[in-house]
Every structure is written in structure tokens, then in C-alpha cells.
Write a structure and sequence with these properties.
Elements lengths: L11 E8 L6 E2 L7 E3 L1 H13 L4 E7 L16 H13 L4 E6 L12 E3 L2 E3 H18 L3 E4 L6 H11 L6 E8 L6 H6 L20 H13 L3 E5 L5 H10 L4 E5 L1 H12 L5 H15 L3 E4 L2 H10 L1
Parallel strand pairs: 1-3, 1-4, 1-12, 4-5, 5-8, 8-9, 9-10, 10-11, 11-12
Antiparallel strand pairs: 2-3, 6-7
Helix pairs in contact: 1-2, 2-3, 3-4, 7-9
The structure holds ligand PBG.
Length: 307
């Protein structure tokens, strides 16, 4: 059934931050309504999400310990591994658990990979990403979402998963991930701001359209089951082009800064929040997104269910 807005709760993915240090939900300043949750709270949050017809969550971890190589990212008792197990024990196949596969929340320097001579080293990072993905699969993840933008990450993760016996675990690739200022609030939420430099050597420059299409095409060849465009709002053309060229499902990530802008303007009384959220999500869907990852998911789903 199509709803008036054209969006269905099952089109949406709700991102959840799990904080190994938190004793109670910690509000995220620049993302009003979003919290870093302690492990015990995640099941409740997921239940509310599922009750509203959203099927999938995307998990980000804030570990209690960080080091040079991000070892907490692939630890068997790491924050994400524990969370995935809990969610799968509680909800089984009723939930689609997607995990972010990256190192920036787990490294003390805040970069998405292994740093050698002051630079992120692509190939040694691939080894670690493979381990992270397999550890998530072992915990029960349905889909892994590599977001570090290393070259060859999808291929490497696909073979690591296959070799470990996880042929059915799917890959949602952050294929067209632009170096964007709109990730600012997320980096506060996930404590993942780089301590030096920026991510411009591995994320894409926003002037380019063809590079995005090439990255998407490569990821599909390497074995991605779903490809993602991120952020969403300033990149609707990329979503549209991707949808018209490729047949795999296209996901769009309506990122933290896009959420924060709406919340800030609404707080000041400068826009109608509900109307803005509908218009934005409809626009992303209309551009061609099959899946929308959005912090608005939890808020918008009950409204969609009332239409
Ligand atoms: C990890 C990652 C980031 C986001 C998702 N995965 C941050 C980054 O690249 O700095 C951003 C999501 C958002 O802003 O909502 N690399």
C-alpha cells in the first residue's frame, strides 16, 4: 500500500548509536531527539522502531577503548558485537540489523583506517575491515555497511565473509560518500572527529558526478548488494542518476547535518518541522532512493502510520 507521502516506514532505516560507556541515554547536543544509548536500552529502542513498521536499524558503536588500529572494532565482545547478539536474540528475523564497518570510532586518531607515516594506508586497512565485517556476521548481522571508502573494500569484505561461511550476509556499500560538512553532528555523536587532517584523501570531492557513478559501478562489480549515496539532500542528482543507471537497490543517507538543520530551524520557529520532514523524505524518495537512512525515521513512522 502506498501512503500519501509516498514513503512507507519499511523504506526507512533508523541509525542507533550504542555507547559502551553510557549508563543512561546521553543526549546528542547537535542532534536533538537522538541519544547515545547504553547497551541495555538498545532493545527497547529497537522495539519501538519495529512497532512502528520500520524493519531495519543501522548500528554505530562508541567503544570504551580506542587504539591505533581500532581493535575494539573487531573484538568478539566489542560494543557492536554484543548489541547485534542482543537484538538477534530478542527479535530474530523480525529485525534487519545493519552494522557500520569503519574504524573512525575505534581509532585514537579518529581516521577511518590504519595510519602509516601520517597517512591512511589503504591495503592494511582492508585487512582490518575484513575482520570487522566477519566479527559482525558472527554476532548475527544481516547486512554490513562498509563506510571507510577504502579502494577495494567491498571485494575484500565479500571474500572475507564468504571464506568465513557468511555467503548470505549482504553488503550495503557507502559507494558515493562525499567529503561533506554535513557529517559534523555525527562526529560529535560518535566521537569520531579526525585528530589531524581531514577525510578528503578517501572521501569524494563534491564537484564530481562521474566519480560517484564510477565508484558505484565498481562496488557493484565487487559484490555490493545495495549501494549508497551520502549525504542525500545536496546529492539528489547522484541518487537520480544512480537509480536510472543501475538495477541494485539505491540507499540514500539523510545525514546528521541535514537532520540538525531542520531541528535547529524548527526550534527557532522558522519552519514547520513536520512539513519539512515530509517534504525532504519525499524528495529523496522521488529522486530514486529505495531505502532512506534517516534520524527522522522514529519520529516520522507513527505519522506515516496515521495517514
Ligand atoms: C563513518 C561514518 C560517518 C558517517 C557515517 N559513517 C562519518 C564520517 O565520515 O565522518 C556520517 C553519518 C552522518 O553524518 O549522519 N565513517
Amino acid at each position: 500500500m502506498m501512503f500519501k507521502a509516498g514513503i512507507h516506514p519499511s523504506d526507512l532505516v533508523y541509525p542507533i548509536f550504542v555507547d559502551e560507556n553510557a549508563k543512561k541515554p546521553v543526549p546528542i547536543n547537535s542532534m536533538p531527539g537522538c541519544f547515545r544509548l547504553p547497551l541495555q536500552e538498545v532493545v527497547n529502542e529497537a522495539r519501538k522502531t519495529l512497532d512502528n513498521g520500520i524493519k531495519a536499524v543501522l548500528l554505530f558503536g562508541v567503544p570504551s577503548k580506542k587504539d591505533d588500529v581500532g581493535s575494539a572494532a573487531f573484538a568478539e565482545d566489542g560494543v557492536i558485537q554484543k548489541t547485534v547478539k542482543l537484538l538477534k536474540e530478542e527479535f530474530g528475523d523480525d529485525i534487519v540489523v545493519i552494522t557500520d564497518v569503519c574504524l573512525c570510532e575505534y581509532t585514537n586518531h579518529g581516521h577511518c583506517g590504519i595510519v602509516k607515516d601520517g597517512k591512511v594506508d589503504n591495503d592494511s586497512t582492508l585487512e582490518v575491515l575484513g575482520k570487522v565485517a566477519v566479527s559482525h556476521a558472527q554476532a548475527g548481522a544481516d547486512i554490513v555497511a562498509p563506510s571507510s571508502m577504502m579502494d577495494g573494500q567491498v571485494k575484500h569484505i565479500r571474500s572475507a565473509l564468504d571464506d568465513a561461511g557468511f555467503k548470505d550476509v549482504a553488503i550495503m556499500a557507502y559507494s558515493a560518500k562525499y567529503a561533506s560538512c554535513f557529517y559534523g553532528p555525527f562526529r560529535e555523536a560518535a566521537e569520531s572527529k579526525p585528530k589531524f587532517g581531514d577525510r578528503k584523501s578517501y572521501q569524494m570531492s563534491y564537484g564530481s558526478q562521474n566519480e560517484a557513478l564510477r565508484e558505484i559501478e565498481l562496488d557493484i562489480i565487487e559484490g555490493a548488494d545495495i549501494v549508497m549515496v551520502k549525504p542525500a539532500l545536496a546529492y539528489l542528482d547522484i541518487i537520480h542518476l544512480a537509480k536510472s543507471r543501475f538495477t541494485v537497490p539505491i540507499a540514500a543517507y539523510n545525514v546528521s547535518g541535514e537532520y540538525a538543520m531542520v531541528k535547529a530551524a524548527a526550534k527557532l520557529g522558522w519552519i514547520d518541522e513536520k512539513a519539512a520532514i515530509f517534504e525532504i523524505l519525499t524528495g529523496i524518495k522521488r529522486a530514486g532512493a529505495d531505502i532512506i537512512i534517516t534520524y527522522f525515521a522514529k519520529e516520522v513512522a507513527p505519522w506515516l502510520n496515521q495517514i
